[in-house]
């Protein structure tokens, strides 16, 4: 008797798959795309024998930044928490979320639940790479796209800048508010004037601070005088009676920067009472610059010099050598911590740990270069440049229109059809608008230039990463080639800000 033995077939796990679809406007074109996406994903999921179709979660006419109004997203997350979903399909990162915090929160929660997301456009699957690396990339992309469409400042504030009515929320040492007017504090003003005199007489900020502390002269916030406080007073044009608006700005990663042309600035002359005249102020600036050049000539620089920041207080880290018997080691310490532990509690970090973290981060990126860097190149090249070019063309046409209006206004005045009062009013408004749009255009051009620089840096990184070879030794040239700056937090984490725009976190 011959018994037939049936072939054993290994059981294949069936994934429960859904799709998330969103359009940000209610335009007919967007809604047509919306319906097409839903049909596409339903067919795609049902055609795969290893998948079970869970459903299509969708939001119409909702911005990616408004997570609280995205009921389709909320429903999907609720089902994921209930264990009904294994895999989520989405067209792109920008369709999923445009806010960094939301993006990180959603993906982290889904990963913990064992639910992964596959982004079609970028060819990124959160199940295939290390979670922290993918989250860093997602954060960089989401934040860049979201903030690229935001305005530099709110219109109400900008209007106050232009008409000279803006009042700062914080007044520097020597000033106070009295009935919503800026007034001089006489005793503090005398100290400010003394600081300027000492500076032009050849004393540095450290010596000036030391003398004021020795004399028990009260300082701002009743703390000890420091060289940074002295420099802040000496370099602040506010003491001349002028107000320079938007000296700093917040970038897409919520870090404060000194404005060096990235944003429009507004100088309001004779805005408030002066404590020092222009001559004294300019003499002090010349002294500061002369001392800076002399100091730079003396100081030796190292690979990390000026590139490491304290994540707690934002101050630069300085190089120090720690000695223990016959042995020594190089550490980097927060400059505020060096002044006083009360200023910052951030502990020092060994240079070798920073080097190891950099090598680990770079090797991870090299391993995932095809999955991450390649689609990122395409995304930035196609979308960012197109948006910038369209906006530049729009502003140029607008400026031409204003120029035409100015010419027409002059012609009406020449023909006697516009009296002097109305002529001056209309012309002033047109000139203000022309200046505002010119500043906006210049800012956009600078932004586009930086985008091009980031694109070139990204291409350079991709070519380097394609080597697929692990790097075992720290190389100063590689560090300077790809790293813009880094932030150190305690002795646990370092965040690398790459020249190409990526932000990657690594454990120490």
In the CATH scheme, what's the topology name of the domain at 156-297? Hect, E3 ligase catalytic domain fold
- What average pLDDT do the residues reach? 78
* Uncertain regions spanning at least 5 consecutive residues: 4-10, 145-158
The total count of strands amounts to 18
Structural class: alpha/beta
- Rg, rounded, reads 29 Å
Helical segment tally? 15
Give the helix level as a range of percent: 40-55%
CATH architectural type of the domain at 156-297:
Alpha-Beta Complex
What is the CATH C-level name of the domain at 156-297?
A: Alpha Beta
Strand order of the largest sheet: 2-1-3-4-5
What characteristic shape results from the CA principal axes? Answer: globular
What are the key terms here?
globular; 15 helices; 5-stranded mixed sheet; 18 strands; about 500 residues; alpha/beta; about 50% helix; Rossmann fold; Hect, E3 ligase catalytic domain fold; 4-stranded mixed sheet
Describe this structure in words.
The protein has 508 residues and is of the alpha/beta class. Among the domains are: 15-147, 3-Layer(aba) Sandwich (Rossmann fold), CATH 3.40.50; 156-297, Putative Large Serine Recombinase, Chain B, Domain 2 (Hect, E3 ligase catalytic domain fold), CATH 3.90.1750.20. It has helices spanning 28-47, 71-81, 93-96, 100-112, 131-147, 155-163, 186-200, 205-214, 227-234, 278-298, 335-339, 351-367, 369-414, 420-465, 476-482, and strands at 15-22, 51-59, 87-90, 116-119, 124-125, 175-178, 181-184, 243-245, 248-250, 256-258, 266-268, 308-310, 317-324, 327-334, 349-350, 483-489, 493-498, 503-507. The strands form six sheets. Strands 2-1-3-4-5 form a five-stranded mixed sheet, sandwiched between helices. A hairpin with a 3-residue loop joins strand 16 and strand 17. It is globular, with a radius of gyration of 29 Å.
């Amino acid at each position: 008797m011959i018994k037939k033995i049936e072939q054993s077939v290994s059981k294949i796990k069936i994934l429960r798959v859904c799709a998330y679809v969103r359009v940000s406007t209610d335009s007919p074109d967007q809604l047509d795309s919306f319906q097409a996406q839903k049909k596409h994903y339903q067919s795609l999921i049902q055609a795969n024998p290893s998948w079970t179709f869970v459903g299509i979660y969708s939001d119409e006419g909702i911005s990616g930044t408004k997570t609280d109004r995205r009921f389709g997203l909320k429903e999907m997350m609720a089902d994921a928490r209930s264990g009904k979903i294994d895999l989520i399909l989405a067209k792109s990162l920008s369709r999923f979320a445009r806010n960094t915090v939301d993006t990180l929160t959603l993906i982290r929660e889904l990963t913990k639940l064992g639910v992964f997301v596959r982004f079609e456009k970028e060819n990124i699957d959160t199940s295939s790479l290390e979670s922290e690396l993918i989250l860093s990339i997602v954060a960089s992309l989401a934040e860049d796209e979201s903030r690229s469409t935001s305005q530099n400042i709110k219109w109400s504030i900008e209007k106050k800048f232009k008409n000279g009515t803006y009042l700062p929320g914080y007044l520097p040492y020597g000033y106070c508010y009295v009935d919503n007017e800026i007034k001089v504090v006489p005793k503090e003003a005398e100290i400010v004037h003394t600081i300027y005199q000492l500076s032009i007489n050849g004393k540095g900020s450290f010596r000036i601070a030391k003398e004021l502390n020795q004399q028990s002269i009260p300082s701002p916030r009743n703390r000890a005088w420091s060289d940074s406080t002295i420099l802040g007073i000496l370099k602040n044009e506010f003491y001349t009676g002028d107000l320079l608006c938007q000296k700093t700005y917040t970038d897409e990663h919520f870090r404060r920067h000194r404005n060096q042309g990235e944003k429009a600035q507004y100088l309001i002359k004779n805005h408030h009472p002066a404590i020092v005249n222009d001559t004294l102020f300019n003499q002090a600036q010349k002294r500061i610059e002369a001392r800076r050049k002399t100091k730079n000539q003396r100081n030796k620089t190292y690979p990390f010099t000026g590139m490491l920041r304290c994540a707690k207080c934002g101050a630069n880290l300085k190089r120090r050598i720690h000695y223990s018997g016959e042995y020594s080691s190089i550490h980097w310490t927060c400059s505020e911590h060096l002044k006083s532990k009360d200023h910052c509690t951030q502990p020092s970090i060994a240079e070798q740990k920073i080097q190891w973290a950099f090598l680990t981060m770079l090797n991870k990126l090299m391993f995932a270069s095809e999955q991450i860097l390649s689609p990122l190149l395409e995304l930035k090249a196609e979308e960012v440049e197109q948006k910038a070019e369209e906006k530049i063309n729009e502003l140029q046409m607008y400026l031409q229109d204003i120029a035409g209006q100015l010419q027409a206004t002059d012609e009406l005045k020449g023909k006697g059809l516009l009296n002097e009062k109305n002529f001056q009013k209309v012309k002033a408004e047109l000139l203000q608008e022309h200046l505002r749009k010119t500043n906006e255009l210049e800012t956009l051009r600078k932004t586009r230039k930086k985008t091009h620089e980031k694109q070139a840096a990204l291409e350079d990184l991709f070519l380097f990463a394609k080597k697929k070879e692990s790097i075992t030794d720290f190389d100063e040239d590689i560090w300077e080639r790809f790293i813009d700056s880094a932030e150190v937090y305690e002795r646990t984490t370092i965040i690398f800000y790459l020249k190409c725009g990526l932000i990657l976190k690594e454990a120490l």
